[in-house]
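Example 3.2
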Amino acid sequence: MKLLSKSESETRDIGARLGKKLKRGDVVCLYGELGSGKTTMVKGVATAFGIREKDITSASFTIIAEYDVPVPFYHIDLYRVTHEDISSLGLHEYLGADGVSVIEWAERAESEIPEKSIKVRLSHIEDNLREIEIEGIEI
């Protein structure tokens, strides 16, 4: 499924629609260049779990942010992680577990990601225009 977003607000709304379809054990992999809207997408997904948008920040410095909500929510940002560091993160504890995991820069951990993950590719077309391609789930 391909969608177009003309603003950050639309990207968050698409994320919220996606979030409403997720269930325990789902893993969402986000792909895209720096500034393509991955963290904005995470903010939208998180709102579907009752997490305030302002509580979601880029997890680049913490790598894994856990949110204690009825369905545990894990925001994983692998931007600063090298391929060599992946195995020491313990990603298997989060992926496919009792919660929902959303991973930015997922390409850095392809070997750790479950085959049945949901893939979201964000592409910056021009100015605020983004193409968002979602596979593995319909929203």
